[in-house]
Here is the input.
Amino acid sequence: MVDSHQNIKQIKPFNFVVFGGDGDLSKRKIIPALFHRFADKQIKVDFTIRCITRNLSDEVAFKQTLKEFILLSLKENDKNAIIDDFLKRVALIKIEKNDKASYDKLKVDLEKTKSYQNVYYFSVPSSAFSEICNTLKSSDLINDQSKVVLEKPLGYDLKSSRAINDIISAAFKEEQIFRIDHYLGKETVQNLMVLRFANHLFERAWNAENIEDIQITVAESLGVEKRAGYYDKTGALLDMMQNHLLQLLCLIAMEPPSSLNPNAVRNEKVKVLESLRLFDKESIKENVVKGQYTRGANGETKLNSYLEDIEKYNSETETFVAIKAHIDNWRWKNTPIYLRTGKRMKKRYSDIVINFKELPHSIFPESNYPLKNKLIIRLQPEERIELVQLSKVPGPGGYRFKPISLKLDFIDSFQDRMPDAYERLIIDLIRGDQTLFMRHDELEAAWIWIESINKNWKKEIPLILYESGSWGPGNDILDENIKWETK
Ligand code: BG6
Here is the structure.
């Protein structure tokens, strides 16, 4: 049903079943996101939450932990009664691996609310997706109303991703599959579409004719923390580049979609991914850098090396990757796009910097700065858009310039709590809106490009060690005033 005023689909009653329900992501993000949408009265229908675990757990203690995480995500601690009401709908259910009998029990439980849609959220490593999906299917737990949510990375290469997709697609139709990338739920990331397609000023200049280069940086100050097992098999290329950075790139580089219809948007994103220039043994040497953090310090705090963090003597897994990419299409011909991400950087921040070209001619012979502009889109931790422009330094004696920023800080304009990325995405998927989720062909195109790196980089490029708390290999490459070159 569609709300006639807002053109928004109504939420139907649902059972939300989280596999990996007692895991970190579920406790920190998924369940608190559902809570906030409930507390803000966006979810007005009836619902249940079933957290699936493989361990024997104590439901009372589990709910207490959930409560603590929810409290952490609140600005004011005045919602105890609502939290308790919310938690009444949560149950912890133990399911043994592949065990038909436990799935049958789940079925009995879900049939108490038989008319509800069942949303299955796979918050587990993708190696477990196929088995869960097959058992759901053979237990007759999937119908036309059901939905499945898949956390990234889907597989570890093109082949394994295809194999998983085949199994999921045999049980669910594409309209029922939600491949989640939480970056697409971030307010600042969604604002990229608004910035580009609701403002005349920028879109006219958004092409190779006017833009010299684009730099997309996601720098994290944390290391791998408690995720050694997962991270050492994954690395920065699959953990961040294959999904989050490529999604940012799509939003920055795509053509205007004909509408906000999910397929119209995703068609344009696929075209960007398909136009990415593939790497080979030669081009990878010039255009890709990988690194791994060693010991270092952040102020007074001493930081471990990656090997110490994962408790191994040896590992070739990269915790930093930087790529000079090209999109071979009309709009972006010869415009380098720098993508970089790393753990244990000096500071946590995510930026998209658009460096505009220098003006073709200067009428100011003494100008002390090149005549060009820069647009900086700060995605996190602050949310800000900054347009760097040249201004005359006041005073006699000719024209001397200073770059000055026009700044829009979101916090000044929008003072409410910024919803977490998962809140928007979870509501969208319960509603069945796929705009912010990856389609099968989008994922496939992303894998093809990543595979051209993954296949070629083991032998061809060295793993550069960098100090924890630094800016990674090459030191100054994250300094936005310096045009970073991979050489
Ligand atoms: C996750 C990665 O998808 O994104 C993590 O697995 C990473 O390694 C995280 O730390 C970063 O997300 P955010 O929202 O903190 O930028």
Q: What stands out?
A: Residues 220, 239 surround 6-O-phosphono-beta-D-glucopyranose (CB under 6 Å). The chain is about 35% helix and 20% strand.
